[in-house]
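Fold it.
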Amino acid sequence: MAGQGEPCAGPGVWNQTEPEPAAARLLSLCFLKTAGVWVPPMYLWVLGPIHLLYIHRHDKGYIQMSRLFKAKMVLGFALIILCTSSVSVTLWRIQQGTPQALEFLIHPTVWLTTMSFAVFLIHAERKKGVQASGVLFGYWLLCFLFPATSAAQQASQGDFQSDPFRHLSPYLYLSLVMAQFALSCLADQPPLFPKRPPQANPCPKAGASFPSKAMFWWVSGLVWKGYRRPLGPKDLWSLGSENSSEELVSQLEKEWTRNRSATQRHTKATAFKRKGSHNKEAPEMETLLPKQRGQRGPLLRAIWQVGRSTFLLGTLSLIISDVFRFTVPKLLSLFLEFIGDPNTPAWKGSLLAVLMFLSACLQTLFEQQHMYRLKVLQMRLRTAVTGLVYRKVLALSSSSRKSSAVGDVVNLVSVDVQRLTESVTYLNGLWLPLIWIVVCFVYLWQLLGPSALTAIAVFVSLLPLNFFITKKRNHHQEEQMRQKDCRARLTSCILRNVRTVKYHGWEGAFLDRVLHIRAQELGALKTSSLLFSVSLVSFQVSTFLVALVVFAVHTLVAEENAMDAEKAFVTLTVLNILNKAQAFLPFSIHSIVQARVSFDRLAAFLSLEETDPGAVDSSPSRCAAGEDCISIQEGTFTWSQESAPCLHRINLTVPQGCLLTVVGPVGAGKSSLLSALLGELSKVEGSVSIKGPVAYVPQEAWVQNTSVVDNVCFGQELDAPWLETVLEACALWPDVDGFPAGVHTRTGEQGMNLSGGQKQRLSLARAVYRKAAVYLLDDPLAALDAHVGQHIFNRVIGPDGLLQGTTRILVTHALHVLPQADWIVVLEDGAIAEMGSFQELLHRKGALVGLLHGARQPGDGGEGETERPAGAKDPRGSAAGGRPEGGSERFVKLVPEKDSAASEAQIGLPLDDPEGPGQPKGKDRTQYGRVKATVYLTYLRAVGTPLCLYALFLFLCQQVASFCRGYWLSLWADDPTVDGQQTHAALRGWVFGLLGCLQAIGLFASMATVLLGGIQASSLLFRGLLWDVARSPIGFFERTPVGNLLNRFSKETDTVDVDIPDKLRSLLMYAFGLLEVGLVVTVATPLAVVAILPLLLLYAGFQSLYVASSCQLRRLESARYSYVCSHVAETFQGGPVVRAFRVQGPFVAQNDAHMDESQRVCFPRLVADRWLAANLELVGNGLVFAAAMCAVLSKAHLSPGLVGFSVSAALQVTQTLQWAVRSWTDLESSIVSVERLKDYAQTPKEAPWKPLTCAAHPPWPRRGQIEFRDFGLRYRPELPLAVRGVSFRINAGEKVGIVGRTGAGKSSLAGGLLRLVEAAEGGIWIDGVPIAQVGLHTLRSRVTIIPQDPTLFPGSLRMNLDMLHEHTDEAIWEVLETVQLRATVASLPGQLHYECTDQGNNLRSSFWTRPRLLWTQGQSARCRPPWGAGLRSAQYCSLPTACAPCWTVPGFWSWTRGRWQRVAARPSCWPRRACFTGWHRSQAWSECGPSLLLWPHQPGDSAKPWRHADLGSSMAPWN
């Protein structure tokens, strides 16, 4: 209730003849009394019913009567009684005949009804479980502020004796309202019976008071905890159901399905109408309409329907914030008017200072509420859209999967979803800045008149400059990205083939190539950075340019116009708002355009074709014995609707328990048949039915990034005895025994810790563990060794295996298993050529007989490979695939306490991998806590001390120029006016412009110095990283995943290139800006130092709390979201397996769990950002209030110009405070990349490439004699010897074959010869010189090796042939002629200068079969090893096992044998050069000279080499 006194009437109220200052009009007693009476009731009657409706729809439960509620009710009834007494007194006086103004009756009556409504709201909120009310908080605040102001004015006028009741009742009323306001700042107890179940660690927001919610104080506990110690997952709050994936995705999926169905119905109806009117145009329209309307519209409407309420509420908060944003300049104008009028009472200045403070605070709170709601909406949309994409991944058809690569899907989730959700913040930026611009020009017109039009001309003139800079910068950015991609591809190729690079000593050549590309990349980045500096300067100086032109026109054109403090500094405040608007508008447009591209990509992906759930008639019940379990009738299938059928008129019935094998040439349709049974193909005609659960083993094994036991169980309950049986049957026990954690060892991403055979056996074990009725096996034996494949067939697939009694369809190239099959189907060209039993098909002499004849190999003793007895012991002491002695329960139940020192034979990795799949690979270290100062010093040293000091000096100079410019403007505003003019206006304008130009020059120089210094530091750090990695031994690359290294060379390098210089520039700008503001306020009002010091302490406290917690939350969020992306990629690759096992539900739940865990981190981080912004802006508003109040107290000693300079500068600091802390936090998060680039500086390095003293003097070696003397090596100090006690001699020109099982040490001998691994005992001598005393590059340049894995690097063909540019074109053509590839290379575009892609993908396409290509890669088409061997003047050549996976392909051996005879075994190929070759098969040994047999760890005979003819029957296991 407003203070009661005289009504708003009198002779001066309507007198408009005398001008009255605006401050006097707005701060008059009549205005304040009227506002105090009507504003609070209007507020409550407008918002109260809406609030009632909201809490009725969102009932949270019943709250018991608490002391807080009872106190509120008592105070409420007291206020009702007070209002009733006011009405009663007025009525009594009227009855007594005393005249009363009508307002004395109307005002108390309005307040009586409003107070009654407020009490009813208090009761209703308790019934609906509202613990803290924002509506009532605002009501009690308004009820206190306006009447308190008018009561204070009335108290200053005295006259208490005339009407004591009406003078005392406002003070009693204010006391009661103040008590109610204090109680509304508290939160009530939780509901007794909440509607939602309680959570383990609930978010504290629900029980927070309204002020805590408004200023985000409820997050302070988490921030303080993060400051004291590193945050962990247990510290994070549980995710509310409103933010959970289950609820959000279901809402969006429901709306998306409904809108898409409606759009499809509309499209069909439109097409039908057009077909009736324009029959010829119907086909075109049917294809165009879905593309135009069927993708974007439904998804956009679905997203709008899900998030519209939150978005509209956030937009309303932003509009209210903007109202207070434009209130501040008006209040500043009134304040400067007060400073310039010496007769205005001081209380008006204090009131204006308070109003400015409150307006700025309300602007902050509403703006932060807007940001909070939109950030929460972003988080929810990211959850919902990601979940929708994941569910689409699980339903993609085969044709859709072919059109979308796994990288595209990951980009959708990681990039496009992010861009789409981030655009929500900028949607209001499309229209709101236009309103800002209009309001700003209205302000400027009121202040400066027609001179304000010149501001438009200046802004328009700056547009072409910014457009030109943006266009040029985009060009250089594109060039930088091209060079960056080129460098990334080359670096990736080098790291993935680092063994080949080190084999040949090519590190120097590749380092030069990478550094050359890097120099071009940094050149483009340097130009782009300079243009970026110009763009930033134009943006920062645009406010100054507009002010200079406007002030010059205003003061120099019109003689009666003079500059004063109000015009100068209010104009600057308005221009700052205008500058933000003109910058925010194009940025919003750019973000929306990017988001539209991402939105179209998402909509197109979500509209892709899905698998038809009705394509296969599947029944979960198992069929009885003798019934047909699988049936295909007249089936014709295709991979997509546009392609031709791949299977034609298939008729097939498979009875229960039958073992059916499917054979045929490559491309006959064997895998397509299994895909048709799974429903992966589009069914053109016919029917397919399957009875019983299905298990599927794909041709390319798919392994999850989880433990071995989780891969095998695949979501089922763990049955330990059955798991042991399955692992033993699938020959996995020797591998599990070598893993450090047994079956609990993680397989790594895409099974990176496993070999190909191990992944295939794990995939088979997953199917066997399923205990399904139908097994579809797509060539699971192809990637296995012969004896392991035979073991698995006998123990798992065959008639006596674990799967006996189930229906099995086996696609295979292993023709020796056909006699054990119940039924055989031969496919040719997508149709069944013949089928029947093995004997029947042999008698027919049809397609199967042709396959068998084609599979015969010269020299073979029979049609298949020699089978080793099932129970025979191999040289390692256990049956193939058998369980090691001593049992295996520990692998299932416990994690072993120590790493297993398993031998290579147990691990079975290619190239004698010493660690094995179970060994822990090098992992990226997770950073915790604050970044150490040494990391900053490392970066600053890379920048250079002189450059650092010079940059600080430039920033100081430009900030001094900025201070002088503002101070000069205050002097200009305080110049006396003579006859309406200022005598020194021209001089003031010229100096003001000169100072602004000096600031612009200094700003450009300082920013360019920081950015260029960052480029210099990045160049040095990258060069150091490249050198550290290149000098690392081969064991380092075996322990460190390639992804970790690539992350250093890509993401971390990009962070050092771009992010750190930009964040450092921002931090320096904001820091020097804060120093300037502090200096301005201190100089203008020295008394403000008393307030500035506590504000600085608050600022430092907020900064310290936020930085520590925010860095941890960002790291956790990045790690958590990477799980989401990895799981999406993993599911995309294994989609057919997931659908075959019918586990879509568990996978969806797993994805939702990953997403919820990511959002558990995202939500505290975004709230912490709002906590920082709100509180630091309040600190900045406190600085504004301090400057204004000190100006009021020192009014007699201050000029209006100096006060305007001080207060306007303080107004600009509110957002600068939070952005300075944000920049510091971003810099600390980014500077971690410097530490990561230096991670490998202290790792062990290999021997010098070219030592100062070398034991080998040219020409060395002369003859090429190699001697191993008791040679042994180990891959790590804690591991046993991988090769032990090897002693033999290879004479000059002799060719030796080295044979042995996988893991016996064949490749280890080659690695020891090239010193990839240093000898642990003994040594190797070449021509009498110990190689340990020879430089690595000298040694490797004298030895040529053809590695197991052929490699082609990106670049020209000639570069791949002659990496060091040592030979002429004629020599290269001669070698091409030797390997019979001259014609092939001559037919290529550019011939020797033909550009090869990574791994030679564009070369492989020119060869018609992959088996021949594998040999061609190693000998011919790969174009490196044999040609290089022929080109290099090496005296020794090593050929480890090549093309091992291809021996089982029919017809491959005959071609390979002829090529070996013509190239490798011919003396003219490597004359007078020693050569030894590693083989798996005895058929190859006949082409060599002496043969050396290796058992695991030691050779079969260390005294003399054994020829293959002397080995006898002991060679049977390799046949």
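The longest strand covers residues 628-638.
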